[in-house]
């Protein structure tokens, strides 16, 4: 059976989709960190500049975006049959496919597969899906050490930290902070290590080289899976992924079920969109693809774990399902004024920024992430930047309508609706509003709204008064 019995939401108590506090509370703390804002501002500005330059080279960028959007919508409409096709082709190529309804099942599957090899250490390719389900924590609880090999993920792991960006997990750290983490946590590091980027990268390379050569099990995610051929693809910039995908004896890939493309040719579109929108490159330095098992070449045991964890619940929402089109480029984060000031940790989920504000609440159930749909100014910059044209602002508004509202708020808006539905009351309310022309803040209990914004100044003359004079 390949039907997972969904939709349902991601389970509580496992993984990294729910924060310990609401976005407003976490954001308030983050805004006090001036160093964080400087780090974020510098990094996002640099990425935007690079991305804009390479996107500007393509005369058909908008057509590529439209193609990507259409391909994703088509894939979601045919997801069950394409997943069956993928399973058949992976199996025919010598791989083994596992279906995981949620984070608990996925973690158990991977843990059991690693234990079956007789090893207690795995190397990991950067993977949002494994962070989402809390795989590292599950492996550790079973006595298995997971070593992150992506440089930024390694920084986060050594610093006992959490990622704050989809593409650049350590974006909240500057090089001086990274040097201190390496000196404190990295075995065998040179005490004379400086904060020069080349030296930091060299230290990480030396630390990881022995691990690459001696670890027999690897865990990866996947950027894309081709249903037509059973091929998996990982795109990265450092070469660590290539090492993990070729050197070990066993490779376990955890992939969200939405990462499918129907045919090999469809990759053409996404291999142009993703690097330009994410890292500002014309193509990724390392694009690794593999199909099942090839005798004598690469891992001789390949397992693919297809992860739901709330995705079919998202698919069931005709408006919100666009969130599943995301190719994890992080372009929306890099242009978002809210993210640039608060950073990723304030979102409480492994998926921060605008895409996290619409994806996380749907994966967990809106009531578990009720504040995230409000983590936006609705400026629309994310929609303009998204390479697959996800209408994030519209989904945010849609999800705000799904959020459970406090009784007092319902009463207040009910009163507003009643007033606006009765012309005489509305006229008196307009005239009364003139009395607040010089007020910048609302009185309690309404002052929560004006805690971070000024009260708009009412016009000196209403439209009805203007009309009556004419």
Structure, explained:
The chain is an alpha/beta fold. It has 2 domains: 23-311, NagB/RpiA/CoA transferase-like (Rossmann fold, 3-Layer(aba) Sandwich), CATH 3.40.50; 407-469, no CATH class. The chain is built from 21 helices and 10 strands. Strands 1-10-7-4-2-3 form a 6-stranded parallel β-sheet, with helices on both faces. Helix 3 (61-77) crosses helix 12 and helix 9 (175-185) packs across helix 10 (197-214).
Q: Report the structural category.
A: alpha/beta
| The CATH top-level class label of the largest domain | Alpha Beta
Number of domains: 2
Overall morphology? globular
Largest sheet: 6 strands, parallel
InterPro entries: 4Fe4S_Fe-S-bd (IPR017896), 4Fe4S_Fe_S_CS (IPR017900), FTHF_cligase-like_sf (IPR024185), Helical_ferredxn (IPR009051), LUD_dom (IPR003741), LutB/LldF (IPR004452), LutB_C (IPR024569), NagB/RpiA_transferase-like (IPR037171)
Protein name: Iron-sulfur cluster-binding protein
Keywords: 4Fe-4S, Electron transport, Iron, Iron-sulfur, Metal-binding, Repeat, Transport
GO molecular function: 4 iron, 4 sulfur cluster binding; metal ion binding
Give a summary of the structure in a few sentences.
This protein is an alpha/beta fold. The chain is built from 21 helices and ten strands.
